[in-house]
Amino acid sequence: MSTTLAKKETVERKWYILDAAGKPLGHTAVIAADLLRGKRKPTYTPNVDCGDFVIIINAEKAVLTGKKLEQKYYRRHSGWVGGLKEVKYAKLMAERPEFAMELAVKGMMAKNNLNRGSLKRLRIYRGAEHNHAAQKPVVWTEA
After folding, report:
1. Residue 139's beta-bridge partner residues?
2. Contact by Cβ (8 Å): 140, 33
3. Which of 40, 41, 121, 143 is surrounded by the fewest CB atoms within 10 Å?
């Protein structure tokens, strides 16, 4: 049996809309990462960037289950002594929900050279409005 491998030149990219309203942050991030990587296509090839464009709307309405709003932190370090900065996810989701969603999707992507190109195809919006109507995006429904 022969295996069909995708070529970079023959990849057809579609636009999908994911609605994060009322859904767990991680669940939406998993679907977005799969679509960006192209893993839900029958022509998926691991060494070719064959993913689609993803628009995530209503990022501010995504929910964190359990006690993650109070117990989970976003941490970054400047590299200097005492340079650790911590922000609780309750504050992060209230002020910058797009960034929280981007962190979740980035954490679920493969750690390789195809990652950066895939993340450039991700668009995240706080509310239900987006400016990509000209691309004729399709609303993603779970099969």
Report:
1. 17
2. no
3. 143
Q: Which two tokens stand for residue 64?
A: 């964190």
Tens of pLDDT along the chain (143 residues) come to 677 788 888 889 999 999 999 999 999 999 999 999 999 998 899 899 999 999 999 999 999 999 999 999 999 999 999 999 999 999 999 999 999 999 999 999 999 999 989 999 999 999 999 999 999 999 998 75
What is each CA distance from 120 to 1, 53, 115, 124, 139, in whole angstroms? 35, 9, 9, 11, 20
Specify the number of domains making up the chain.
Answer: 1
Specify the CATH number for the domain of residue 63.
3.90.1180.10
Does residue 3 sit within a domain? no
pTM of the model: 0.92
Domain annotation covers residue 8: no
